[in-house]
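Researcher: Next entry in the queue.
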Amino acid sequence: MSIFKMSLKESLAKHKLWLDSHGENGQRFSAAGANFEKTDLIQANLRKANLSGANLSKANLSGANLHEATLFGAKLRGANLNDADLSSALLSGAELQNANLQRAILTEALLCEADLTGADLNHANLHKANLSLGIPEFVKAKNIQSLLLGNTVPSLVANQTNLEEANLSGANLSEANLDFANLFAANLEGANLTKAKLFAVNLSKANLLRANLSGADLFQVKALATNFSFANLTDACIEGWAIDSGTNFDQVICDSIYLKHVLRSLPDYILRRYSDRRPFNPKTRFAQGDLAKLVSKENAIAELEDRGSDLLQQYLLIEEIHQIFGELSEQYAQRYADASESDRQTILKLEIKYQLRRNPAFRERLLDALNSQNQELNKLLANNTFVQVPPELLQSWI
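Model: Structure for this entry, 398 residues:
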């Protein structure tokens, strides 16, 4: 046995004793900056070990216990971490290019500014993992506010976590923080991204087939030529997202979406809240295919590329008004078969005012559409199954 292997074996034995005795005996495994390239560490117990800056490139850490281990800036290029436990591990700035992390446990792991280019995270568990920028949340919140005001913050791009072309199929990223991360051409087929934070993430050319994005924050996401087919976008916030003619919404699942976003900076985190729901009525939901239909209307895609969710709000407003007319016609078709136009306008006025009280955003969008003299809205007001109403009259009710 080489001196290195003997020393490593002894160090691991001392570390086990240190863990078992809760620090009373033995010695913590501390090998910051050490070279373990291509070393066999299968199922090694390195829980709470210090491996900051260590070279573990192409090391075999399959099934290893690295729970709460410190791996800041560690070199793990091409390392085998299949089935490893990296929960709550500190991996900020780690080099994980082409690493194998299949089925790895990375719950609540800190992966800020890590490079995971080409890494295989198939069915890995990244629940509540932090893959955002390695800066305090309140600083990040200020930078986000700057971006919203149109100011550039160059350092954010330089410090982003890189997951380009990474394989995250079937991975659990629920409630994970991926703000500003680069997921260009990443494979997220069947991934769980419920309530994930994806502010300004690059998802272009990513595969999100059958991914679950319910409640996800897609604020200012770049999704050019992204595959969302069969994905679940229910209750996601899509304010300011960028899509194009190559973005695929085939068979997308979406009961409702949010078009606005409220950010509040707190000392140690960012409070996020969504607003401006579509459909407006919280008791109603889209029919299957409605979202895909809205974003694929004639000439819509080209305009959406430039105007984002503003145009989508107009389309959804038309759908909501159309729904109001349809429901009134269904409810009062027989009862008011012989009613005068004035009586029908009174009924419509009461329904519109009811909707205005329920959702102030409905009033704002309706006013915007009337002030812009939206041709599609005017056509709907003049040709519907309940009653014709001039735009000027509808505006007087608001």
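Model: The longest strand covers residues 257-265.
Researcher: Noted, moving on.
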